[in-house]
Amino acid sequence: MRIATWNVNSIKQRLEHLAQLVKSTDLDVLCLQELKCVDEAFPRSEIEALGYHVTTLGQKAYNGVAILSKRPLEDVRRGLPGDEADEQARYLEGVISTGSGVVRVASIYLPNGNPIGTPKFDYKLAWMDRLIRHANNLLPLEEPLVLCGDYNVIPEAKDAADPAAWVNDALFQLESRAKFRTLLNLGFTDALRACNDQPGLYTFWDYQAGAFQRNNGIRIDHLLLSGQATDRLRNAVIRKETRSWEKPSDHVPVMIDLDLD
DNA sequence: ATGGCGGTGGAGCACCGA
């Protein structure tokens, strides 16, 4: 089973890229972030025509997450538990049944949190606390679990081409990184790092100042695997080439292969 | 150089992203 995560920065703007990706790569599950549209405006029929079941949690103009799956998504959870007043569309979860068992997948769009020292950063940290709590509650299910998405966290200095440029940014704050590490320490594995510990691996490049051409990127899109998923991990790769396509998202897909049919 | 770019909403330019 092949699972990918991709912040598309507007699904309507990226429909052709999405079609190009899934036609060139056999993806069983594709988690999307930053749809930037309400559910009614999501290009559902176009994506169903590509062979996917579509589950969305949209929002006007901002945020929005989806899970596309060749098999039906069951036991769907919309929104991250822990704050009934939170109306931002940033979390979607469901279960996919395969011939060799189930896999639970979540599509996550973790708050950016900039600028630091404002309620936006407080919201980011509180959201991470809720994610940690919810992930901890899922672990006793003892399922292969894949928490994937745009975490808006640069885990380590080697995950940025120019780490000094990010020291005052919410993505590289010690508090953000500590909470990310707390999540890992529950028993999750960073799939990309389990397969490749080299520096220079990035998933986001700013549109400005020729960042991609200079490979001035950061690694902020992650797939975190429960123990049961890690046991089945075969490979993880970043689809960097999509960033050189015409009118690209500023993020690229990250995908894993799991030993699951 | 806190912008440089790109998307949304809505018809200017503000807001957001990272």
Q: How does this model look, in words?
A:
The chain is of the alpha+beta class and 261 residues long. 21% of the residues lie in helices and 27% in strands. The chain has helices at residues 15-24, 44-48, 119-138, 174-185, 191-195, 227-230; strands at 2-7, 29-33, 53-57, 65-69, 74-78, 91-98, 101-109, 145-150, 189-190, 204-205, 217-218, 221-225, 233-238, 254-258. Strands 3-4-2-1-14-13 form a six-stranded mixed sheet. The chain has a six-stranded mixed sheet with strand order 5-6-7-8-12-9. A two-stranded antiparallel sheet has the order 10-11. Helix 3 runs parallel beside helix 4. The protein is globular, with a radius of gyration of 17 Å. The mean pLDDT is 97. It binds one DNA strand of 18 nucleotides through loops.
Search tags:
DNA-binding, alpha+beta, 27% strand, Deoxyribonuclease I, Chain A, 14 strands, six-stranded mixed beta sheet, 6 helices, 261 residues
Give a quick precis of the structure.
By secondary structure, the chain is an alpha+beta fold. Helices cover 21% and strands 27% of the residues. It has one domain (2-258): Endonuclease/exonuclease/phosphatase (Deoxyribonuclease I, Chain A, 4-Layer Sandwich), CATH 3.60.10.
